[in-house]
Amino acid sequence: MMAISQEKLIEASAQPFSRLSDRQTLVELQQVEKIYPGGTVAVQDANLHIKEGEFVSFVGPSGCGKSTIFRLIAGLSEPSGGSLQVMGGTPEAARKSSQLSFVFQDATLMPWCSVIDNVTLPLQLRGVPKKTQREEAHRVLELVGLQDYHKSLPRQLSGGMKMRVSIARSLIAHPGLLLMDEPFGALDEITRQTLQHELLAIWQKNPKMTVLFVTHNVFEAVFLSTRIAVMTPRPGKIAQQIDVPVPFPREEGFRTTSAFSEIVTRVNEALKH
Ligand SMILES: Nc1ncnc2c1ncn2[C@@H]1O[C@H](COP(=O)(O)OP(=O)(O)OP(=O)(O)O)[C@@H](O)[C@H]1O
């Protein structure tokens, strides 16, 4: 594997953000708080401004409120305090307009349906004509390299392939905001790294698409993100936000550079607070 030279990193260090300059704020959280019935303060005083086109990862120990923040941004749960705006309106409005989609750790496919029927589900629910459904399905299946598997059933696929189907389904309605909650957590390391590259390639092809990504894995967060929100528990807080000013495309060699280890160390330090 070839390492990216330090000079190349320094020279290009402003590039990931050229994609982001002059972009509108897509997600805005101001002093957001979530207290569950029973009194658990899952999220406290969360402030976050995410621009169109960013790739922001959320890292933190179990129970620090990562999924809760995602549920709030997706309009699946109401905040107890503070304000949230997604795409200029309420999170619920963004979800209902299909501009926002979700990928979970479990691929959540319908086992009795073929790959293509699983992928077209969001369009079936919206009554999109069948011909358009099929065209869009072939587009997204090609993006994830599964064009030859459209007739397969989920049980005929590996874990990595199921996750690709889930990603294809999330992309079919051209979402502006993709929320991914530990999507690669159940996969082996090699498959995980392959999917990281594939996800970055898809994101780079869609300069306006914003990805929010939950992971326990600091290495994964540094490899993928333009910015990392480090969360700490009891109560759940966004303790620090750390930029990853390294250009895209990020090659495999990025993982072995000193820039990579320095950012990993910064994130690990922030997690201790
Ligand atoms: N529906 C709920 N009702 C009551 N408490 C909840 C509910 N959902 C989450 N919690 C609590 O809120 C806190 C934050 O949970 P959350 O699932 O957001 O954390 P997380 O960082 O995503 O954890 P993990 O990494 O394990 O998925 C935890 O203490 C959890 O027990």
Summarize, please:
This protein has 273 residues and is of the alpha/beta class. It is 37% helix and 22% strand. Keywords: ATP-binding, Nucleotide-binding, Transport.
How would the global form be characterised? globular
Roughly how much helix do the residues carry, as a percent range? 25-40%
CATH architecture of the largest domain: 3-Layer(aba) Sandwich
Number of DSSP-assigned strands: 9
Protein name: NitT/TauT family transport system ATP-binding protein
InterPro entries: AAA+_ATPase, ABC_transporter-like_ATP-bd, ABC_transporter-like_CS, ABC_transporter_ATP-bind, P-loop_NTPase
Keywords: ATP-binding, Nucleotide-binding, Transport
Organism: Paenibacillus eucommiae
What does this structure look like?
With 273 residues, the chain is α/β, with parallel strands linked by helices. It has two domains: 6-99 and 177-272, Rossmann fold; 101-174, no CATH class. Helices cover 37% and strands 22% of the residues. The protein is built from eleven helices and nine strands. The protein has a six-stranded mixed beta sheet, with helices on both faces. A three-stranded antiparallel beta sheet has the order 2-1-4. Strand 8 and strand 9 (237-243) form a beta hairpin. Helix 10 (218-224) packs across helix 11 (258-272). The chain is globular. The relative contact order is 0.19. Residues 1-15 have low confidence and may be disordered. The structure holds adenosine-5'-triphosphate. Residues 36, 38, 40, 42, 60, 62-68, 236 line the site of adenosine-5'-triphosphate (ATP).
